[in-house]
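Long-time lurker, finally posting.

We've been working with Major Facilitator Superfamily protein (Actinopolymorpha singaporensis) and I want a structural starting point before designing mutants. I don't trust myself to interpret raw outputs, so I'm hoping someone here can both generate the C-alpha cells and explain anything notable. Sequence follows.
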Amino acid sequence: MLTSLIVFVIGSVIAGLGVGLTLNGTLRVISAATSAKARSEVFSAAYVISYTALSVPSLAAGLLARSWGLEDTAHLYIAFVAVLSVIAAAHAGRPQAHKGTGDGRSATSAAGSPHHARHEQTSC
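Top reply, 14 upvotes:
Generated this for you. Predicted structure of Major Facilitator Superfamily protein:
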C-alpha cells in the first residue's frame, strides 16, 4: 500500500511540473507574439483550450467506463495519452522555422516593437 502511495505522489509531482512548465512556456510565447491590444483575447482562448483539453478526455473516460469497464477504459486512456505524448515529443524535437517580418527580424522579436504596433494599426 505504501509503495502505491509513493508512486502516486511521485507521478503527481512529475505531472504537475510538466503541466506547470508547459503552461508557463505557452503563456510566455503568447505574450511575446501578440500585441497588447489582442493579448487578453488570445490568453482567454488559450485558457479555454487548455481546460477543454484537460477535461474532455476525463469526462469521456468516465462515460466509457460504464459500458467498457474501468480496467479497459484505463488501458485505452493510457494508450491515448501515450500516443499524444509521442506526437508532442516528436513535434517539440523538430527544428522550428522562424517567420521573418521582412526587415530581418523574427516575428517574436518584432512583437511589441513600434514598427509592429504601427503595422497592426494600419492593417484592418
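Before you design anything, note these points.
Residues 51-81 form one domain.
Residues 59 and 121 are 43 Å apart (CA to CA).
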